[in-house]
Amino acid sequence: MTEIRELNTIDIDDYHSLVSEAIHDQHIVYAWGVYDESHIPKEYLAHLLSEHNTNERVFGLYLDQSLVGVATLIHSSVYGLRHKGILQNMCVKMIDHHASQDLAEELMNYIVRFCQHNGIEIIMTSIASNNISAKIFYRKYNFDTLGVEQHARKLGNKYIDEHWLVTDIRQ
């Protein structure tokens, strides 16, 4: 049985564990911004999951009371920007390809409904240029490539290009 809910500070350890595993390529990643565990200290996670953080919401997907998927939605309350959100750090545990795909779709469907319910009309995300499975996944949700950001991330001396994707989810 699955459940999706917004994570809070009580969930820090589970969230940290899942994100750490995703960094080490143990899970299926659909959008990612964290590449090194040193960039996810507990203080940052406490802020991210705090009820006082009104610009970022972290959704957790639970399977049999175990956290198996997460996604962060960044949403500005600034007038003129309220109609769009940015999806980041979405991953699901690798169970098997079909089960993991189904979980990712369940999480994404929840996020789309959340956005529609809260007046968010456009969802943007960025994916590493070599993440073919994410490109295929987002195509199901009518994401189009907005552009390619060269050298979007720098890890040591290595650069990663990212594709920016966008979809209009107005009903």
UniProtKB/TrEMBL annotation:
Pfam families: Acetyltransf_4. Residues 2-170 form the N-acetyltransferase domain. This is GNAT family N-acetyltransferase. It comes from Staphylococcus marylandisciuri. The lineage of its organism: Bacteria, Bacillati, Bacillota, Bacilli, Bacillales.
